[in-house]
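Technical annex B. To support the medicinal chemistry partners, we prepared a structural model of the target in complex with thiamine diphosphate, based solely on the information shown next.
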Amino acid sequence: MGKRIAKEVSIAVAEAVKQCKVDVIAAYPITPQTHIVEHLSELVANGELDAEYITVESEHSAISACLGSVATGARTFTSTSSQGLALMHEILFIAPALRLPVVMVVANRALSAPISIWNDHGDIMAQRDVGWIQTFAENGQEAVDLVYHAFRVAEDRRVMFPVIVNLDGFNLSHMIEPIELPDQEQVDQYLPPFKPKYKLDPRKPISMGPVGIPEIYTEAKKAQDEAFKNAYKVIVKAWDEFEKIFGRRYRPIETYRMDDAEVALLIMGSLAETAMTAVDKMREAGKKVGLVRIRLWRPFPLRDFVRAVKGVKMLAVIDRALSPGATGGPVAVEVRSALYQVPGRPRIANFIAGLGGRDVTVEDFEEMADKAYFYMKKKPKEPYEMIGVKE
Amino acid sequence: MLKELAKFKGFSAKNLPKEEPFAPGHRACQGCGEVLALRLALKALGMNVIAVSATGCMEIISSPFPYTSWRVPWIHIAFENAAAVASGVEAALKVLKRKGRFPKNRRVDVVVFAGDGGTGDIGLQALSGALERGHDFVYICLDNEAYMNTGVQRSGCTPYGAMTTTSPPGKKSFGQMTWKKNVPAIAAAHGIPYVATATPAFFLDLMNKVKKAALVNGPAYVHVYAPCPTGWGSKGEDSIRLAKLAVETRIFPLYEVIEGKYYITRKITKPKPVEEYLKLQRRFRHLTEEHIREIQQRVDAEYERLLRLAECL
Ligand SMILES: Cc1ncc(C[n+]2csc(CCOP(=O)(O)OP(=O)(O)O)c2C)c(N)n1
Ligand code: SF4
Ligand SMILES: [Mg+2]
């Protein structure tokens, strides 16, 4: 087992990618993803990582080159943020449909305009429906661990879907944290070599990416959807395996002080640490507040989620993205619909917070929990509200 | 002369490869110049190929699931990114060979097929990136001078005066009002080892150029002029005639750029008037004599420019 060493999270993530022995990297720089790809360039330049690094001229080409590479049978990695992810959008749909298991780390950042390099989830929420497996990291250790997990799951022949590991830009990507990088043997034990069943090889020619006439399009999509839902089991099993080898346990949904909670804060990503402090404070004041964190966003872990919020009266859903004019932020819309058929379901208060790098403080969480208590008695006027807006 | 090309003797009518990597039974229109060029190009390359297509006519007509015309491994991802996809394929082959996961000595040519739109317009950035990075691959642009797959809309490669569905002649328009974009010159400006122009009318020349493009180390670009009876309003049986006339009128000169040096591969000493070429196509039917004179002048000037490039460099 490796030692816990203080490291910048981006550097640790790049080291983890190296330990996964990627064959091809294609990436284009964008803040705050830059430290990840810069460090990978260094590792390749020093010969510490034997890989082809394609310095593409755009993110659209980054993801396109990744698909070409993984289709040829090479383990492939990319990373981006914000505008870069948006530029990839068109191609993101094609990867899972062709069952091409690329792994991508997204250092989450707000979308323009106004242009902002700072953190929120606007970039990734715009990619909700692309059909990639998506996980969210809370801290540096988790970010690193999710990278090993991502390759293991993506390339599993029962899965063969691309994976996005989300980590909050700056708030996580640029933090120095104590992180334990496992020994190479452990990673090798966890992650078998990439051996896709189908690949571009003149010895066994296949056609990839044909035209889907109306007679087969629906069936193709049905097959994709079934396979995607089935990926859930492999995702969870891969975390079980992870625990056996590395000793750290991950589940699709994480809970904190949820026994007997009346109000639950629901969050994703690195806000969890502050939220836990807020929960502790409120518990001390006698308020029955707990915390739920979604780690696996796609495929959405419906059963785990329903179990996690059972008995809760009011769910305070914190969205880090705005869906203008919708009935809530993307997370709230998701969980409201997830809970709709559940008897005795909690009610929902939805808060949009932490946009474009705005801090979400312990006090903000307290305010949201208080509002949630208030809304137990009096229904909110609007389906969602923004927190921390200056008057 | 590049050393990679020194041993290549060239194809002749007697030593044509027997293999047909592109199968018959595809759904292209009768007299399609693109599919003919595509078939010949693949014939020149053989079976040790990984092909990447951009969205467009050739991708559509060759792959209606569950059918495929491709007897070589083939991938299509999207419209504007074929060069980027090929970059990934090439990089993967390189690293897999290095790591012993693909036979080291097995030669595999990575080849892109894209239309003029997928190359010179929406795909220009990805193409430029791939050429600049020096991937060892062949990029073949099949230029039918418009977006045919979507119903004959103008592209940057549509010639001056041509009628398309988005450059219709009218009271204030005579069709396409801009001159054709010189995409092979853009490719050559990247300083890549090999650039060529070709047409299926001179099929041995086309096959030889494609083969040379594959033989050189590094990126190579072949711009193929490909008549499209459906989009041009010409007769299917006139496609080869048009492809030949385009060369003989000097509208589409045949040349190579090897390591930056221009070579005219078919000198046209007694050019035919452009009108002979234009009048066989409905897309030029509305043009006045004045327009035709303008086109003639431009063609003469461009050819002069090309001659100078071939001489002084
Ligand atoms: C991003 C994007 N924009 C537009 C299209 C629609 N589209 C598909 S093929 C095509 C034109 C293809 O023209 P060209 O590259 O010249 O090939 P051709 O069909 O003429 O052989 C267009 C506009 C698309 N598929 N993707
Ligand atoms: S429209 Fe033109 S390019 Fe397309 S298949 Fe028909 S003839 Fe060929
Ligand atoms: Mg075209």
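Notes passed to the chemistry partners:
Chain A has a mean pLDDT of 97.
Chain A touches chain B through 45 residues (CB under 8 Å).
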